[in-house]
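Re: the multi-chain job from yesterday

Posting the exact lines I submitted so nobody has to dig through the queue logs.
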Amino acid sequence: MLSNHLQNGMESAKLLWSRLPNSEAEAEGGAADDLGRYKKNDGSAIESLDYEVIENSAYRVEQAKRGKLYMGYSVMMKWFFSLLIGIGTGLAAVCINISVENFAGWKYSLTFNIIQKSYLAGFLVYMLINLALVLSSVYIITQFAPAAAGSGIPEIKGYLNGIDTHGILLFRTLIGKIFGSIGSVGGGLALGKEGPLVHTGACIASLLGQGGSTKYHLSSRWLQLFTSERDRRDLVTCGCAAGVAAAFRAPVGGVLFALEEVTSWWRSQLMWRVFFTSAIVAVVVRTAMGWCKSGKCGHFGSGGFIIWDISGGQEDYSFQELLPMAVIGVIGGLLGALFNQLTRYITLWRRNYLHKRGNRVKVIEVCIVSIITSVISFGLPLFKKCTPCPEADANSGIECPRPPGMYGNYVNFYCGSNKEYNDLATIFFNTQDDAIRNLFSAKTIHEFSAQSLLTFLVMFYSLAVLTFGTAVPAGQFVPGIMIGSTYGRLVGLFVVSFYKKLNIEEGTYALLGAASFLGGSMRMTVCLCVIMVEITNNLKLLPLIMLVLLISKAVGDAFNEGLYEEQARLRGIPLLESRPKYQMRNMTAKEACGNQQVVYFPRVVKVVDVLSILRSNNHNGFPVIDHTRSGETLVIGLILRSHLLVLLQSKVDFQHSPLPFNSRDGPVPIRHNLTEFVKPVSSKGISIDDIHLTPDDLEMYIDLAPFLNPSPYVVPEDMSLTKVYNLFRQLGLRHILVVPRASRVVGMITRKDLLIEDNEDSPSVELRPTSVRSLCCFTPLY
Amino acid sequence: MLSNHLQNGMESAKLLWSRLPNSEAEAEGGAADDLGRYKKNDGSAIESLDYEVIENSAYRVEQAKRGKLYMGYSVMMKWFFSLLIGIGTGLAAVCINISVENFAGWKYSLTFNIIQKSYLAGFLVYMLINLALVLSSVYIITQFAPAAAGSGIPEIKGYLNGIDTHGILLFRTLIGKIFGSIGSVGGGLALGKEGPLVHTGACIASLLGQGGSTKYHLSSRWLQLFTSERDRRDLVTCGCAAGVAAAFRAPVGGVLFALEEVTSWWRSQLMWRVFFTSAIVAVVVRTAMGWCKSGKCGHFGSGGFIIWDISGGQEDYSFQELLPMAVIGVIGGLLGALFNQLTRYITLWRRNYLHKRGNRVKVIEVCIVSIITSVISFGLPLFKKCTPCPEADANSGIECPRPPGMYGNYVNFYCGSNKEYNDLATIFFNTQDDAIRNLFSAKTIHEFSAQSLLTFLVMFYSLAVLTFGTAVPAGQFVPGIMIGSTYGRLVGLFVVSFYKKLNIEEGTYALLGAASFLGGSMRMTVCLCVIMVEITNNLKLLPLIMLVLLISKAVGDAFNEGLYEEQARLRGIPLLESRPKYQMRNMTAKEACGNQQVVYFPRVVKVVDVLSILRSNNHNGFPVIDHTRSGETLVIGLILRSHLLVLLQSKVDFQHSPLPFNSRDGPVPIRHNLTEFVKPVSSKGISIDDIHLTPDDLEMYIDLAPFLNPSPYVVPEDMSLTKVYNLFRQLGLRHILVVPRASRVVGMITRKDLLIEDNEDSPSVELRPTSVRSLCCFTPLY
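And the result, structure tokens for all chains:
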């Protein structure tokens, strides 16, 4: 049926396509990605990743290097890179933490020294230091690394879902993120350094994956191993997990965060590598902290790293306590949903009115926010009447009063007597880490008055909303924990008064409050639960945390989407959710395509035609058809725009003859450097305007057969769109061809056709360490 | 192009197919299952699950009940069932634990009383009690519930992968599992109750899902809600998680176990429900334990439930210790792989020589194993010279010596002096839970001599291998922990002697040893890590556990497959692995089908033809074709064997006319009770021999259009088999039609075609609590 030349073309295409390397990546050849060029409604195009092209050519690159030895080397390198990501992210986290703690410690000790003489001078110094730090941060962001603003988690989520927001994984973004978050967190704004650390981990991973930054001449050829998009995304996933593991010293939490929250396509092989990366981070951070214990790191060390150990706290709970805990869950859901809603409005407002006016407005805005924060955090405690210290308990080891800023409860701030403390200053005039430690602290019943907690809650909540979306790196974890633990402690206060039991700790309620607010705002479940357990080092409260999270997430879901989804939507990152939309069930594949005109390429195409077709539309993939001898058309594959652009630019595959290459003459000669097909991360690739062709070139032909993907996924035209959606989403596809119903069935594939025994000396030996379930098998036994 | 009657038929098919209910299940209409009838090599057919049929008809059932109200009710019921599963599994676990502890406690106290007078009489009593308990267990299994033998995890894994081994989820299996494991664990065999508890959880979930057991008249109509296979599998997944959560009191470990180890198709919505079930289990178990604390549960309570708390142990570790820890990892990998290999041989040997001879042999075998176990565990300590008690440390609260059996270290057994203890008896003449507690114990340096540990390791390892595969419920977790902690403690012994540091605890090494053996044998990663942390209640050792697991799994993978995969393979459960086989990369879809003859049905088919086709082969699905007016054939869908059998049996859809139903006459009348299509779990459904047709019936026709699946997944014939495999595995399909290349492309679907905004008042309000990422959206903002 097929004409001869078609048959030949098909064979040569198959020839190339079937020369698949024995790589892990290949093993899931189909489970690729993603998406065409997606137009944001505001007109700017979001660059999407050219997955299929890269894979196509990556295969050949790997093929070129061929052999099992190379395969083993590649697997080894993947593990080596995971190690590097772990070390890099761990060091970045340590560096950020040491800097922040030192800036903050120095700031508070200076301020404290001055307020011994004058509160006004102290305030001015405090405000100016904050302003200077924040200014450094916003300067870096606006001048150098605009993509480093915000938490970065929505963008990373988008990247792993298949949408490459420009610039998020550049070297300058990494630098901006690290130094920016030192400034913004050290400057006392109501934001955290944990979200940025996730972004930092992802940047480190991505830069390693592409072999450094070309722009800053930091690239290295021997590092440029990971030419396939899948490998790069795997590395970024490792980086995210490493970020969480480093931020919270929660290695399992990191793995689960990467699994539950960030990735869109999870492969069980990857889990193992992500797990390894997290373990490395834990070891690196622990080593650095051990080194710092001797006092070499200045103010860092004693209070140190995040981890609010409450393992000395409440051991048990009674059934009566479940009611107030449920109340905490409900409050968390409500306040979390409100937070998402308010931040949405303020982000919209900023985008539409403020940030349009340029960088100067952004800088001024951040400075104003910083001044407001300084005024409130310094000023409000001044109006708070001091409380007498509780009677000293020799065993508890709790000192009262203490100087303000860092390490410990019962801060003496603007108090008349020496035996008094200012409870509002204890949490407000302090770094957030230490404020949380104070809020979580056990054996300090009634340290905080309801009035102070309520004041703090309202003020801090407003500050957190106000700060959200300013042009500095900003995480929402720590502010969320602050807010949550405040109302949690408030509820705890009432529970202690009401139930009058001694074994109830307000700190426990503060922890549950923190979990509930994060659950109500971010809507994470298992990973949040594990993170909370890991940062508080208390496994006994696990069922309670689960309960509170269940309630707060359910309440929050009744109102709006999670924070990251909402922010991704606002930033125009169209995440493809894991389930199809409701109305898809009544649509067919054909209806989804609408009335779009399908633009075909013939197998051998004139260069001038290619150019005009590429200019006339912005499709990202084109079906290629050929004719059988009997004149029927036949779809022989899919060619990608970016692929065509590479062909046009290199010109080496041009031919004078309009006849296809005949495979009887030998294998298709591959005339060009196949790495050309690999598109760098965060770059736009070749544009059609970059291509300059002579009139002679335009008259030549290209045989597309060697370059097309000969078996794209197809669906019949009347398939339900929910099914199509699942196919697209689960396999991470980029294009699906909609074709008419088949006229006959060649065969049926069922489970038994896919249960092939693996009895050659396969290269799985090298693969084993990476696979959760080993490929290796025994010879058949039964 | 289509003929009129074809068009009508298609419309009516689409009509039915598109009347999809707005259910959660529907939302992933495509992500179904699975597999044809798979022939084991030994000839017996494994029943596979008819997923598509059930879905098909389940849709209609739900459609019939229609409406959002029903949807809300159904979601609510899913959560309610999760609650019930949690409570049920928690209670089963408590019940098993109380019984085992009481039997064991009573056994040891009786034996101890007797050995005061005569060691021989004591031994006889000890042996006979063990024998009686084990006999009761093996009797239940062989006579009543053969499917309850073994751990059950491979079978459950198979079920969730799509293979229904007969009888594993029956009510009798549940009963057999509970009482059988009480007998076998109480009888002191070298096996655990944790694997069986996972199976128990799965059984409870499955029975609830199908509304009770019909056979024992325990079913209830109002419970029969979950007619879809997916819902049932979701429940079973919840049950597995509940089982682990109950067995180890490790709720997060349970969720991860279900995610990593058991399920094949994971949906993020499910995670949330699994999480809830685990939390419920934790609460139930905790409540029951609180209730038992007052001494109402006999011997249960003080030592109690599994959880070997080592939170009082080693707090820190130095870099020097990483080397011996790595050694533990390597030992774990080697011994684990050896264990898998030996159990494989012994299972094969049993199957081929022993168990063929019937139940009597099985009973005798278990009795012999029991007697050997009793002899070794009682006899060996007699030959061990007693050790003088260490100098008493008033603070440690450790008493020396103690009476043998349960609770505590330093057991006085066959010792001359009153100030001596027998270290071998401390671990050997004891329940496994308490032996592990002793091995893990901190502040008991040099309690065990290297000689005793080595003796115990060799003997217990042999016993564990010998016991594996006998006809009693048997888990491998606790024996694994026993073996691992023995050599771990042995390494710890050397480390303590070598490094001479005081803060090194042998118990820590025992824990790491346990993790390493489980990692080397079962090859789990994240979930095992979390389970180990949860059962020891010590988060600080997390990075060390991770490290040890990484090494032991890598070492083990170099030799063979994980224990469960190996056992599944031996039992003829053909698990479809998550990655395609190596040689698939060189095959096409067409080659995978081989030369099989595709058997078609025409749209309207004579009953006699249906019968003869069904008799002539054992295919499970058949393409249905129709003719256009121009005479071309067209594939209009796929009909399933089981579906046809229901049609043949009910006869209500027979018609006299050979013409298809015309949709202009109104919607297709559905003439029969649609629940008939729902196949009960663990039953074979209708057989072709059950169908009795009169000669008149045989001359009638059936119009298949309303009953077929109008859009099965298709692949072009020359698609790479790796791609086909991924499609099949990721979407959990059962049939893929291989079709010729398309002649034209109707359209292309890319990401932007699937980003439909959801702006109707969708029913997602009811869905929200179940979705991790809410469906709800705002109106477009940008």
